[in-house]
């Protein structure tokens, strides 16, 4: 099988490859030796002969971009689609907005910054926390009558995750809030009995 480059051409590649891209090196060889070498042939030759140009194709740490500090010139139709300073999108919700999200609960916007859980909070949790302070870890707020639109403070009951699980498993959340609270007490007693018997 014939070699792609003779001795002289190979030496030329080794002498000139540092800091030069494959396409540029192919052009240099083609001009000097009247060849029709492609960028991929140079790439393969360098790989087969374990040669490196030292180029990584990446910006090195500390690299300063050529357009640093410059502003993009507005040309053509760009200005029509760019947000102006202080612009608010058409679907912006002000703080205090109430929405029913896909989970079926009413959410209230409490902030304009941060991720979703920092900007929005469930209404029943806000109401309960306003009266009682932060909800402890591993606790939930139960709608005693099962209606997640009834935000009466007497209808919002603090329960642990395990109590909520037992109420849901047993189907103990009734339209009658008093009945649900009674079943919650039964669940609490059962949980204590289980702890004692362990």
TrEMBL record:
InterPro entries: His-Me_finger_sf, HNH_nuc. The keyword Transferase does not apply. Pfam families: HNH_3. It comes from the Bacteria. The keyword Disulfide bond does not apply. Residues 121-165 form the HNH nuclease domain. GO terms for molecular function: endonuclease activity. Keywords: Endonuclease, Hydrolase, Nuclease. This is HNH endonuclease signature motif containing protein. It comes from Latilactobacillus curvatus (Lactobacillus curvatus).
